[in-house]
Amino acid sequence: MADYNNNMTQHQAKNYSFDVQKLYIEMLLADAESFARAQNIFNPKSFDRKLQPIAKFVKDYMDEYKVMPDVEQVNAKHDIKLKSAKDLDPSHFNWLLDEFETFSRHKALEQAILQSADMLEKGDYGPVEDMVKEAVQVGLTRDLGTDYFEDPKGRLEALKANNGQISTGWQNLDKKLFGGFNRGELNIFAGGSGAGKSLFLQNLAVNWALAGLNVCYISFELSEQLTAMRLDAMMTNIPTRKVFPEIENVEMKVKMLKKKAGNLQIKYLPSGSNVLDVRTYLKELELKNKKKVDCILIDYLDLMMPKSKRISPADLFIKDKYVSEELRNLVVEKQCVLATASQLNRASVEEIEFDHSHISGGLSKIQTADNVIGIFTSRAMKERGRYQIQFMKTRSSSGVGQKVDLEFDVDSLRIRDLADDPEYKQFDKQRSTIYDNLKKTSKVTGSGTPTDARPEVPDPTKGDTIGKVKATVEGGKLRQLLNELHSDEEQ
């Protein structure tokens, strides 16, 4: 607070008189490089009222013609006459940029404080923090990007060190993602009603907490107590129906897990909350725990509202577009991993292949997200303890359209990998060969009539793959089918 007061005193002591502001404009017009660096903070409203028409003329001229006007052009349009400042030493322009940056930030803060006063009187607290934050961040364009050809090794090593990849806890999913989710990414699990969106997010929370990461689970539906009870079953592998009868056993196991786990915080926020509410809570959480949050789970995106309350909740495309963009800005700012969920529309109910048209609210969420993963299940699959997920979009892998099968324990609500399942490994190794052979047996004559009138066999690479093949294995049908295929080839 003392530093803030000192800075304010310094700003107040600065001379931002009419003549000083006029000098800023004159010097900026004298050096194209300086103006290019300051262009993003050059706001005509920041200047004295008498100078605002000149500043606006300069900005409009640049926007239209992509070059700066000279002093003579400006003077021909306005009563106030500018002086030429072309013969200055380059060091003077360095001073100019530092001074102009401070001036622009000071004026932005002034405007934010004045606007905030009106909002505070109306009780509209949400945008105030954002306005002040944006004003404080006003600055020159200093980062010119990455020089591709300069130090490739250093560039790659820095990427490797700072990427901060986090495993999902599911080996087969990590393979498709080339290792897992990356910090700064927005990830969306999309599914229909009852598909298990919350279950996936809760299982991710368990995976990450047990991996020693600091996790925050924010729910807009379930209470903190109910969410925690579900996590009890997942953490301890005690069936949900036995959690209450075995309270002491649950307590003992949870306390044992705490010794090696990271922090896991559960927070309920009312439906219709926005990113500002989430950001405020995260700030309080990090101050209390003195730990940076590694992973954020939000259950779920569709129940949030954008920061602007003027947007109608019925306008799903605009609402979801703003919310997803705000969430992505949050996760980039926090440099953590964020996973949320979204609803699929009714057209997806009977489908076993998802595409962008199945996302409720339109394409805006898909365009913003880094990874979009569809959740496919059915009653039959749930009974056999299976879930299937499909990559609808990825930015950092080649997994689009590919599917991953996962095991679901209905008692503990735990979703596990099938990577260590011997039967699944055998199926995964053989399924492409089986399907290729099946296609070979369907020989077609010149008239288009099949010579082999075998009953149509389902494609084992699509739909409920594990369930179909596993059921076949159990009944001995797959072995019989393979024998028949071999017989046909020998003939």
Structure, explained:
- The protein has 491 residues and is an alpha/beta fold.
- The chain folds into 3 domains: 135 residues; 248 residues, P-loop containing nucleotide triphosphate hydrolases (Rossmann fold), CATH 3.40.50; 54 residues, no CATH class.
- Helix content is 49%, strand content 11%.
- Strands 3-2-4-5-1-6-7-8-9 form a 9-stranded mixed β-sheet, with helices on both faces.
- β8 and β9 form a beta hairpin.
- α6 runs antiparallel to α7, α11 packs across α12 and α17 runs parallel beside α19.
- The N terminus and C terminus are likely disordered.
- The third-level CATH topology of the largest domain is Rossmann fold
CATH architecture of the largest domain: 3-Layer(aba) Sandwich
The CATH superfamily of the largest domain is identified as: P-loop containing nucleotide triphosphate hydrolases
The level 1 CATH classification of the largest domain is Alpha Beta
Q: What is the structural class?
A: alpha/beta
Biggest sheet features: 9 strands, mixed
What does the radius of gyration come to?
Answer: 30 Å
Total strands? 9
Strand content: 5-15%
Residues in helix, %: 40-55%
Q: Can you give the mean pLDDT?
A: 77
The string of secondary-structure elements, in order, is HHHHHHHHHEHEHHEHEHEHEHEEEHHH
- Helix run count: 19
Number of domains: 3
